[in-house]
Amino acid sequence: MTVVTRLDDIADAHPLGPRTPFIAVADGVQVAEGDLMAKSWMGDETGRLVDVRWRPGHRDAARLVLEAAIAAARPSEVLNASTNVAVHRAPAERVALLESCGFELWQEKEGFWWADEGRDLPLPEGITVRRLAEVGADRFAELIAACSTGTLDRIDADAMAAMGPAKWARAFLDSATDSTWLLAEDTASGQAVGFVSVGEFDPGVGTITYIAVAPGQRGRGHVDALLKLANHTARDLGFHAVLCDTDTLNVPMQQAFRRNGHSSEATEWHKWMHRRTV
Questions:
Q1: Predicted confidence band at 22 (pLDDT cuts at 50, 70, 90)?
Q2: Angstrom distances, CA of residue 92 to CA of 31, 69, 82, 89
Q3: Confidence (pLDDT) at 158
Q4: Are 189 and 231 in contact (CB under 8 A)?
Q5: What single DSSP character describes residue 213?
Q6: Rounded to two decimals, what is the model's pTM?
Q7: How far is CA 188 from the centre of its chain?
Q8: 144 near 172, Cβ under 8 Å?
Q9: 55, 53, 57, 56: which is closest to 22 by C-alpha?
Q10: Distance (Å, rounded) from C-alpha 62 to C-alpha 100?
Q11: pLDDT of the residue at 175
Q12: Percent of the chain topping pLDDT 90
């Protein structure tokens, strides 16, 4: 017989706030566990994150843990859950478990890996680069909101709709304070063409926190300039590689990654994000 127990909430300075743990015990052995977080990855407006982990052969126990976490949420709350080939054992089994408990696919993301092979990385021509400190947080947040108009990232689009573009952009900027934010302007006209942000993923490995081209500047190759700038910045920051991902529906971004030396075949990273309303 499997028994699921809800433990006392834990406040351990986790960026998603306090978590409510659950464990499943069968024949005196813990076979599954899970957490219901206070927030999601983008804040309260997009719901709460739920996670579940289990020993091989104990998916039924994991289901009981997941059901207990769902039952602990408040009515009408949105719960989010993620699965990653590079992180989770048996990802297909995990996706099947989530969907059997009423979660629906929200977004799928493809990972891309760029390795610094020591080649010359010239900065893009015709572009003037300014850092966040020069531009100012308020102005940069305005640019994030403007450049994210029409985004093909499903989670970002939903978060913007829930929070409003201005509030979402400021929240995103405030959540990535360790990243290097760079504004790219057309040197001749002084107009902003887009921006890119580079941060740390793991020791020695960077990530593109965000990249976007201004709506009126799209279709002119600026995304390639921004990716070249990102690669160059990653090297300057001491990273030997960059791991990032993009929505599988964002075909133009996938093509841009490949044009600039980022490979999806070089990494296992592949994510599914699911959600359900209680």
A1: very high
A2: 19, 21, 12, 9
A3: 87
A4: no
A5: E
A6: 0.90
A7: 34
A8: yes
A9: 53
A10: 12
A11: 83
A12: 78
